[in-house]
Structures are given as C-alpha cells and as structure tokens.
Write a structure and sequence with these properties.
MetI-like fold, 8 helices, flat, amino-acid transport, MetI-like_sf, MetI-like, transmembrane, AA_ABC_transptr_permease_3TM
Length: 226
C-alpha cells in the first residue's frame, strides 16, 4: 500500500470521529438557533416598533459587515477581558448562531415580503389573528421559497465550521492539524479533510434537491386547490 494511502486510512477514523462529535453537532445547533434568531430578527424588522426594527437592522449590519473569524476571536479571546469566560465550543456556537441569524434574517425577511398582501387579507377575512395568519398562511408559503437559499446557507455553514479550529474547537479540521503536527504530511491530511467536507456538502446538496422537489409539489397542490 502506498504511504499516502496508508496515512489517509490510518487518520480517517480520527477525522470522522471529530466530525461526528464536534463538526456535525456544531453545524446543526448553530443552524437551528440561528434560524430561530433570524426569524425573530426578520419579524422585528418587518412588524416591530421602530426601536426594535432599528436594533435588528444594527445587528444585521454589524454581523454582515465583519468577518466571521473576527467575530469568533472577539467572543473567545476578547470577552475574557470583560470577565466573560467561555469554553471553545459554546463560544463557537454563539458566534455561528449570531452569524447565521443575521444572514438568514435577510432571507426570511425577503420571502415574507414576497407573499402577496392578498394572503393577509384572506386570512383576516376568515377571522384569523395576526399570529394565526403568520403561522398558518404566510410562513408556510414563505418556507417554500426560502428552502433553496437557506439550504445553501446550511451547506456553507458545514464548511465554515472549520474556522472553529482557530479558537481550539477540536473539530474535523483541527483534528487534521493535530495529525499534521505529528506526521509532517500537510498535503495528504488537508486533502483528506477537504474530501470529507466535499462528501458532506455533496450529500447535503442532494438532500436539498429532494427537499426542493417536495416543496415544489406541495406548492403545486396548493395552487391547484386555490
């Protein structure tokens, strides 16, 4: 067996374990929390009072205008100077959540705004409250449109979690760095890590396609029944 292939085979379990224990949980939790934050931010900007809308705009402006790596450094290395100490994983989770929240809020805000006003009027005409109209009429229609951009955001997040290595989270990329430090084979190990990310992204892309088709059929059924 060639040396490079043997090295990849020996390091694969460690890389997969780091991905399973840290990369995947960090991705899922960050996306779930970020999506909830993005929904709240979008609703605040669209329907909240002026101070809430202004605060939401400021949050989105700051997060979208600064690099994610800098945000992670501020949280993990900067906050201790204020007496706020966070372990690496919670710091990364907060950073990714804030980042996803800002970007997803713009997607959600756009798709909610794209729902025709007649849908609101129809919901109100049958006695729905604002909350009922939002949850039963507006969000289901907006979700169908939001699937592709939010899926792309999720796939990008999988790859962005490699930045967590910079704040000592022992995820997939840092596992590769640690093996490199003992084997002195950076090219082989980093290519192997890249291939794992590529496989994850490819699988998620296929799931995205299936999800889009399912929502497209659901949308067609709604239009047929309208």
């Amino acid at each position: 067996m060639p040396h490079w292939l043997q090295l990849m085979a020996e390091s694969l379990p460690s890389l997969l374990w780091a991905g399973l224990i840290f990369t995947i949980p960090l991705t899922l939790l960050s996306f779930i929390f970020g999506l909830a934050l993005g929904l709240a931010t979008a609703i605040g900007r669209l329907f909240g009072p002026a101070p809430v809308a202004a605060l939401a705009r400021f949050y989105v402006w700051v997060i979208r205008g600064t690099p994610l790596l800098v945000q992670l450094f501020v949280i993990f290395y900067g906050l201790p100077s204020l007496g706020i100490l966070l372990d690496a994983f919670p710091a990364a989770l907060i950073g990714f959540t804030l980042n996803i929240g800002a970007y997803s809020s713009e997607i959600i805000r756009a798709v909610i705004s794209s729902v025709p006003k007649g849908q609101w009027e129809a919901a109100y005409s049958i006695g729905m409250s604002w909350r009922q109209a939002m949850s039963r009429t507006i969000l289901p229609q907006a979700a169908r449109v939001a699937v592709p951009p939010l899926s792309n955001t999720f796939i990008s997040l999988v790859k962005d979690t490699s930045l967590a290595a910079a704040i000592t989270v022992p995820e997939l990329f840092q596992a590769a760095q640690r093996i490199v430090a003992t084997t002195y084979e950076p090219l082989i190990l980093y290519i192997e890590a890249a291939l794992i990310y590529l496989v994850l992204s490819s699988v998620l892309s296929q799931l995205q396609v299936r999800l889009e088709r399912r929502f497209a059929r659901y949308g067609g059924m709604l239009e047929a029944n309208a």
